[in-house]
Amino acid sequence: MGITEVRRTALALAIAAALAMPAAAQQHIEGQVGPGALYALDVPASWNGDLVVYAHGIVDPVMPVALPSAQDNFAGILAALMDRGYAVASSSYSANGFVLKDAAQRTHQLTGIFTSRVSRPNRVYLAGHSLGSMAALKLVETHPAQYDGALLMCGFLGGSTAE
Q: 86-116 as b/e, with b when 16 or more CB fall inside 10 Å?
C-alpha cells in the first residue's frame, strides 16, 4: 500500500469516527438568570430549527446549584437530541430541593433567553424528569400556546397532594 492509499484510508477512518461520535454543539452558551440560576444553550451544527427545553429532577438541597450533567442521564439525552438536530436549553434552579415554583419559572425563562441569544425556534418542546416533569406539566398547562409538546418522564403527575 502506497502513501496515497494510507492517507486515503486514514482520512476515511477519521470521517467514519467523526460520524459515529455524538454531535458537538456548534454553539454553547452559558449564563446566569434570576438569583443564582445557571443556564446552558446548546445548538448543533445541523440545527433543525426546533428547541427542547429541559427541566431536571430534584437535587439534594445540600448539593451546590449546578447545571444538569449526568443526573437523569442528561448527558445522553443531550447527545441524542443534538444528534437529531434539536437545540437544547437547560438550567439549574435558583436552589435545590423541592422547588417546583422556581423550577417552572426558570424553565419558562429559557425560551426567551434562547430567542434573544440564538434565534426564534420553529417549535418549542418541553422535557422534564421527576420534579422537572411537574414543572413542564405546569408550563404546558399554563402556557399552551407557547409550547408545542411535552415529554414528562418519571413524574408524579397527580400532584403531590393527590399522590
A: bbbbbbbbbebeebbebbbbbbbbbbebbee
**DSSP secondary structure code for residue 95 in this structure:** S
Our CA dihedral for 103, 105, 109, 111, rounded to 10 degrees, sits at 70
In angstroms, the CA 77 to CA 57 distance is: 14
Task: Using alpha carbons, select from 83, 52, 67, 64 the residue that is nearest to residue 153.
Answer: 52
Type of residue at 38: L
Q: What single DSSP character describes residue 23?
A: P
Model confidence pLDDT, tens digit, residues 36-68: 999 999 999 999 999 999 999 999 999 999 999
C-alpha cell at 87: 437545540
Q: pTM above the 0.90 mark? A: no
The single residue listed with the C-alpha cell 393527590 is: 162
| Alpha-carbon gap, residue 18 to 14, rounded angstroms | 6
